[in-house]
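Sharing a chain and its predicted structure for anyone who wants a worked example. Both blocks are below, sequence first, tokens second.
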Amino acid sequence: MGLQADCTVRFGDRTSAGRAMLETNELLFRGDFRLKIPFADVKSFEAARGQLEVVFSEGTATFDLGRRAEQWALKIRYPSPLLDKLGVKPTSRVAVLGIDDESFWHDVSARTKDLAHEKLPDADIVFYSAESKAALDGIEPLIPSIKRNGAIWVVYPKGRKHVTEGDVMAAGKAAGVVDVKIVSFSDTHSALKFVIPVAKR
């Protein structure tokens, strides 16, 4: 995730403690009630006196974030591009496996020319699609193809019961890698980053 914080949120006549999460394209809150505020739906926002006030189509939500309020406001105003969150650099050697997203392929190919739709030796990053639990068995065979300090991003459906975040984490652990980061890959998918444990590099 980009940023997350335990805080109190006021929305309409409701107030709840919970966790706020600032994703690539949306602001989320999980407490006694839930909020999902796409940046595209935000009409205005302001950070003042430790509070972030967000006005969107459903009303006004006020996040009590303390000194983090201004940082979050800046992230909403200037969101980091997805490829920056995924760590793709102009020098990155990247393999994209099974991800049927032309816009993603276009963005990655504009960032780096060392790119393929198949496994590459000594890859810096492998993006791997896992649309089912069975596909998670494919994580372990990818490990030898990445650099010792490389990464495997497993891209899987959001909010679906047939393959969950817990399933992906467990599969990575069983394969011998550790999860270090999760980001919102798109409106429909999340991406979980795995790396080789430092002690085994």
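Comments welcome. Residues 3-77 form a domain with the PH-domain like fold (CATH 2.30.29.30).
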